[in-house]
TrEMBL record:
<dbReference type="InterPro" id="IPR007177">
    <property type="entry name" value="Tsr3_C"/>
</dbReference>
<feature type="compositionally biased region" description="Polar residues">
    <location>
        <begin position="266"/>
        <end position="276"/>
    </location>
</feature>
<dbReference type="GO" id="GO:0005634">
    <property type="term" value="C:nucleus"/>
</dbReference>
<feature type="compositionally biased region" description="Polar residues">
    <location>
        <begin position="8"/>
        <end position="18"/>
    </location>
</feature>
<dbReference type="GO" id="GO:0000455">
    <property type="term" value="P:enzyme-directed rRNA pseudouridine synthesis"/>
</dbReference>
<dbReference type="GO" id="GO:0030490">
    <property type="term" value="P:maturation of SSU-rRNA"/>
</dbReference>
<feature type="binding site">
    <location>
        <position position="105"/>
    </location>
    <ligand>
        <name>S-adenosyl-L-methionine</name>
    </ligand>
</feature>
<dbReference type="GO" id="GO:1904047">
    <property type="term" value="F:S-adenosyl-L-methionine binding"/>
</dbReference>
<feature type="binding site">
    <location>
        <position position="128"/>
    </location>
    <ligand>
        <name>S-adenosyl-L-methionine</name>
    </ligand>
</feature>
<feature type="compositionally biased region" description="Acidic residues">
    <location>
        <begin position="246"/>
        <end position="260"/>
    </location>
</feature>
<dbReference type="GO" id="GO:0106388">
    <property type="term" value="F:rRNA small subunit aminocarboxypropyltransferase activity"/>
</dbReference>
<comment type="function">
    <text>Aminocarboxypropyltransferase that catalyzes the aminocarboxypropyl transfer on pseudouridine at position 1191 (Psi1191) in 18S rRNA. It constitutes the last step in biosynthesis of the hypermodified N1-methyl-N3-(3-amino-3-carboxypropyl) pseudouridine (m1acp3-Psi) conserved in eukaryotic 18S rRNA.</text>
</comment>
<keyword id="KW-0949">S-adenosyl-L-methionine</keyword>
<keyword id="KW-0690">Ribosome biogenesis</keyword>
<dbReference type="GO" id="GO:0005737">
    <property type="term" value="C:cytoplasm"/>
</dbReference>
<dbReference type="Pfam" id="PF04068">
    <property type="entry name" value="Fer4_RLI"/>
</dbReference>
<feature type="domain" description="16S/18S rRNA aminocarboxypropyltransferase Tsr3 C-terminal">
    <location>
        <begin position="79"/>
        <end position="204"/>
    </location>
</feature>
Length: 276
């Protein structure tokens, strides 16, 4: 994935009318193979079918054979990105990902209570730190990553950049994900453990809140007050988070291969415990 200026990437996201994902056209097998770099670790998801299959990034990855769908009750030995985790992912998890792979729990933010998290077995559940979504449904919103963004974020933070880019390369809107979040990724990757990533996240949120408070003290030239950008994290115990100061407006929802979830799972009948 090319490292363009983030403003150029955001502009491309808004104006690229010929994007295949936005138009809903599937990539040919030849095009998929050209872009596909082999991911040498297991990538999996529990998909609870909360989202439209035509827009679900997890289901698209499954169709491309880039992710394995797990049954409820299946034990996953690697790192699981889950909204119910208590520890933030960090570079210290690289060895766990290398040995056991990466999985996500794909479910709607609005339906977390419907997910049987107690039946999703993993000893290594992790939260994602503060990041911004760039998918068309939740563009620019903190925390609201969909499945492919969540996987890519976890790979970036643990140092598997090529794996992250392989997954993102199949979504035309995803080119901006790294650039928009690059300042955050760079700070998180300098950390050595989960506690340091949590500390870096706190500093980022404090800085953004301070900038927002300063912007409120002075009206702009039109006399209008700045937009309130404080957003509660639905997935952490922090009381507030803050939008990154993006000059671009959030685009209208576009029919695309995206979901409103960070993580997903397959809503198959409960099974006896298995191990992957």
């Amino acid at each position: 994935m090319g490292r363009k200026d983030s403003n150029d990437l955001i502009s491309t996201h808004h104006t690229n009318g010929g994007n295949k994902d936005i138009e809903g056209v599937e990539d040919s097998e030849e095009e998929v193979q050209k872009r596909k770099a082999k991911i040498e670790v297991p990538v999996a998801m529990w998909d609870f079918d909360h989202c439209d299959p035509r827009r679900c990034s997890g289901k698209k990855l499954a169709r491309l054979k880039l992710i394995k769908e797990l049954r409820v009750g299946t034990r996953f030995r690697g790192v699981v990105v889950s909204p119910k985790a208590t520890q933030v992912i960090s570079p210290a998890d690289r060895d766990l990902v290398s040995r056991g792979g990466l999985a996500v729990v794909e479910c709607s933010w609005a339906r977390l209570d419907d997910v049987p998290f107690s039946k999703i077995a993993s000893p290594h559940e992790r939260l994602l730190p503060y990041l911004l979504a760039t998918n068309p449904t939740n563009y620019g919103k903190p925390w609201k990553l969909n499945c492919v963004e969540a996987l890519a974020a976890a790979f970036y933070i643990t140092g598997f950049n090529t794996y992250a880019e392989t997954l993102l390369s199949h979504f035309g809107w995803a080119e901006s994900f790294y650039q928009v979040n690059r300042p955050f990724f760079e700070r998180y990757r300098k950390c050595t453990n989960s506690a340091e990533v949590s500390g870096a996240q706190e500093k980022i949120i404090d800085e953004l809140e301070r900038k927002y408070a300063e912007s409120r003290s002075v009206k702009d030239n039109t006399g209008t007050e700045p937009i309130d950008l404080l957003v509660a994290n639905p997935n952490h115990n922090y009381t507030t988070a803050l939008f990154q100061e993006l000059d671009q407006e959030e685009p209208e929802d576009v029919e695309t291969d995206t979901d409103e979830v960070e993580h997903s799972t397959d809503s198959l009948p409960d099974s006896t415990s298995e191990e992957m």
